[in-house]
Amino acid sequence: MSAITVVGGTLAGMAVAARLAKVRHEVTLVVTGDRLGPTDLPNVFTFPAPWRDLFTKSGRTLAAELARSGHELTSVPSRTIGDSVELPAERGGQFAALSAAYGTPVAERWRDLLDGLDDVWQARRPLGLEQEFDHELFRSARKQLRWGTTVEQLARRFDHPVLSEVIRQAAEGDPRRSPADEAMWLAVERTFGLWQVTTTAGEPAGSGVLVDALTERLRTRKVTVTGRAPEHADATVVAQGTLPRGWRGPRPWPKRAGSRVGERTYACGDHTHAGRTIAGQLLSAALAAYAVHFDLTGENIHPTNKDRRRAR
After folding, report:
1. What's the Cα-to-Cα distance from 127 to each of 77, 171, 197, 302, rounded to whole Å?
2. Quick check: 310 pLDDT over 70?
3. What is the pLDDT of residue 40?
4. 167 class by beta-carbon count within 10 Å (0-12 exposed, 13-18 middle, 19+ buried)
5. What per-residue string of b and e applies to 280-306 under the rule 16 or more CB within 10 Å gives b?
6. How many CA atoms does the CB half-sphere of 78 hold within 13 Å?
7. What gap in Å lies between CA 212 and CA 108, rounded to an integer?
8. Is the pLDDT confidence value at 272 over 90?
9. Which one of 82, 89, 120, 215 counts the least CB within 10 Å of its CB?
10. Phi, psi for 9 (deg, rounded to 5)
11. Mind listing the pLDDT tens digit for each residue in 216-260?
């Protein structure tokens, strides 16, 4: 059993600590302040697979964990765009709703845009989300990723008073400085739907329930939570950080941190290739856990593609 220090009580820090503790490492999570994890998670989100995988790989399924507190994960049929248009997550539903609200030509352009963004998602997944970032693979995928284009440029090209704003909202930061591939989350939403935590009676409960469940998982896995780093660690995971000045924009994205950043030093969270979304934080935590465990034990616990498909 190795001693591992995780620096940062972020969502990514909590996730990597839970994963590493489950594979029998002695984990210390170093935090500042009184509360673990974020307090501002959106109550409606897409792509629940990283949440489900985190809880499964740290000891108990998400459904079972939520049931213990009288909650469940529930699909959300649509979200409101503009003043009153309900946009379903499902492909056919989107086409019908947009045709009724804005006309068939606009619905066709939206469908074609998201079809293209689905290709971006497929190209982006092995580049720091589900696998370690590979510069050679990135170079071969630049055209597919719409390299050098911003989310803002993508929105302006679509040129619609409501849907262009929806595109801008998909950016992880300022759409004028966010790479166009971040708009892929619109395609992810269409594929995986929208979700929220509710009570078993169907009342919205807020995503804080997920953070509370993860906090309880850390207790179950006997993760030490402290404000002071221990003197010795066999490995350190830095789970908090920001992008350096000059590294924001559509081109510097490959310069972000990967899982391995130094001798027995690792990274996960906002400042990595996975980005700032909830899914990105959880996926970067998984990659960091795989890297730490492999380097310390020689055991590869990274799931196969087949395993990932089954998890969805």
Report:
1. 30, 18, 29, 15
2. no
3. 87
4. buried
5. bbbbbbbbbbbbbbebbeeeeebbeee
6. 15
7. 42
8. yes
9. 82
10. -85, 40
11. 999 999 999 999 999 999 999 999 987 766 666 777 788 889 999
